[in-house]
From TrEMBL:
The lineage of its organism: Bacteria, Bacillati, Actinomycetota, Actinomycetes, Kitasatosporales. Pfam families: p450 (PF00067). PANTHER family: CYTOCHROME P450 YJIB-RELATED (PTHR46696:SF1), P450, PUTATIVE (EUROFUNG)-RELATED (PTHR46696). It comes from Streptomyces parvulus. This is Cytochrome P450. Keywords: Heme, Iron, Metal-binding, Monooxygenase, Oxidoreductase. Belongs to the cytochrome P450 family. GO terms for molecular function: heme binding; iron ion binding; monooxygenase activity; oxidoreductase activity, acting on paired donors, with incorporation or reduction of molecular oxygen. The keyword Heme applies.
Length: 403
């Protein structure tokens, strides 16, 4: 049996992390999906190779199965997309339960329906102010600079309990962390500065009764439920994750402006917008390559392939969201798709805790932009919209519009 599995080993495919135009789906990932449900890849950084799992049911299984862990990555030079993904001891992204569960529990209240609803009206008000400023300045405008970039920063700052004066610095640090083109040293320095900021902020909140994330973390540290280092690591992770909304919404509006029939349908059927946002979240290729790896803690068979204990394993949420067995005609943007069990916010213990918040922000953006700017259109040809270079999270660098 061991020999049979050995003979079935797929070849190792090199997977370069390249800048793709617009919302083009990664052609290498497309080929890997065709080659089989479980393949092997070598990424630009780190060493060796890793398994890649692409089918929807397998992705959900691996991400929710305790036989695959994150902590075992420590001290290993696993092949990875960028130098930024070197595991840091104690970082929540590399913890396994029960430590991971304990740490996430400390901020869970902020990301419940009630917690997210707490910032809805303030978020809508901040968004209206940004759109007001853009329209008063008149066309043309950069929708990214005027609205899509400052809005998620302001909302995450509100949820995190970051004073307005500190939000610009957090935004700058986040962009440096997420862009490998600046180099690992620049990214690590930015992460250190952000960590120092949150250490000071959380340290001041040990007696707080606030419902924001910094207050919840401060109280948890004060009660010795988590350490300050753990609190800071979680705060940094959440803050960085909030930046994804800028890029995701940039791709959403790039699509709506280059496919005006989709925008017109959402204008005429506003009740469809929440479902449409979910479909856009499923469809857009929100990242380059893959994120963080896991390690098989024992031998596991996945679709007839033996993954050995100690092997590195990646899952592709992008591929899972295009699985034709779950999403008929997966390359089609279908606002009537129901059900839509996409995994854009991950799955299992490490799923994105801010998924509900991201949906809220996306829905508010669609409402405000489509309703208040009925004549909105690109100010440049679609192919001239510049997309970010060397970024792990994909999206337009700017979105020139007129109305």
């Amino acid at each position: 049996m061991r020999e049979a599995f050995s003979r079935a080993m797929p070849p190792v495919r090199e997977w370069p992390v390249v800048d793709l135009p617009g919302s083009e789906f990664d052609p290498v990932l497309t080929e890997l999906m065709r080659e089989g449900p479980v393949t092997r890849v070598s990424l630009p950084d780190g060493e060796g190779w890793a398994w890649l799992v692409t089918r929807h049911d397998d992705v959900r299984m691996v991400t929710d199965d305790p036989r695959f862990g994150r902590e075992a990555v420590m001290g290993r030079q696993v092949t990875r997309s960028a130098p930024h993904f070197v595991p840091a001891r104690g970082a929540v992204g590399f913890l396994d339960p029960p430590d991971h569960t304990r740490l996430r529990r400390s901020v869970a209240a902020a990301f419940t329906a009630r917690g997210v609803e707490r910032v809805r009206e303030r978020s809508r008000g901040m968004l209206d102010e940004l759109v007001d400023a853009m329209t008063e300045a008149g066309p043309p405008a950069d929708l990214t600079e005027a609205v899509l970039s400052p809005f998620p920063v302001a909302v995450m700052g509100e949820l995190m309990g970051v004073p307005a004066a500190g939000r610009h610095a957090l935004h700058t640090w986040t962009r440096l962390i997420l862009s490998p083109s600046h180099g690992a040293e620049v990214g690590e320095r930015a992460k250190g500065e952000m960590s120092d900021y949150f250490a000071d902020l959380v340290g001041l909140r040990s007696d707080s009764t606030g419902e924001d994330v910094a207050s919840l973390l401060g109280v948890a540290v004060g009660r010795d439920e988590i350490t300050l280092d753990e609190a800071v690591g979680l705060a940094v992770l959440l803050q960085i994750g909030g930046e994804a909304v800028t890029n995701n919404s940039g791709q959403m509006f790039h699509l709506l402006l280059t496919r005006p029939e989709l925008a017109e349908r959402l204008r005429s059927e506003p009740a469809l917008r929440p479902r449409a946002v979910d479909e856009l979240l499923r469809w857009i290729p929100h990242r380059n390559a893959v994120g963080l790896s896991r390690i098989a803690l024992e031998d596991v068979d996945v679709k007839g392939v033996r993954i050995r204990a100690g092997d590195a394993v990646y899952v592709s949420y992008l591929a899972a969201n295009r699985d034709p067995a779950v999403f008929p005609d997966p390359d089609l943007i279908d606002f009537d798709r129901d059900p839509n069990p996409h995994v854009s916010f991950g799955f299992g213990p490490h799923h994105c805790p801010a998924g509900m918040l991201a949906r809220l922000e996306s829905e508010l953006l669609v409402d405000a932009v489509l309703d208040r700017l009925p004549g909105l259109e690109l100010a440049v040809p679609p192919e001239d919209v510049p997309f970010k270079k060397g970024a792990l999270i994909r999206g337009p660098e700017s979105l020139p519009v007129t109305w």
